[in-house]
Amino acid sequence: MSDTVPETEIREAEIPEAEIRQEAAEAEAEDAYDPAAPAPLNVPRTPTGNADVDARLERLGDADHLATDGHIEVYEDVHQGLRDALTALDARPGPPAPSPSYGHRS
């Protein structure tokens, strides 16, 4: 066993503390900005007045925090919800049909 200090420890001791802090700050700055990281688009969503549609449009905001490959699940969910809302509009009963007044001639 050797009593000498390993060469790497000597080199670290020779580096000024200010330089170490600067390197750490640069590394942190690089980590803080990642152009490939998910970022919100901040697209304004105007309320439509239909609670089902508004809820689905708000769900689009969930894609802001996902990687691109996670967007498809959100988009498919929103698309299906909007289709369901449109189908529900078609299924609502409308006003009653007018009675044929021409059938009761005397």
TrEMBL record:
Residues 8-24 have a biased composition (Basic and acidic residues). It comes from Streptomyces curacoi. This is Uncharacterized protein. Residues 1-51, 85-106 are annotated as: Disordered. The lineage of its organism: Bacteria, Bacillati, Actinomycetota, Actinomycetes, Kitasatosporales. It comes from the Bacteria.
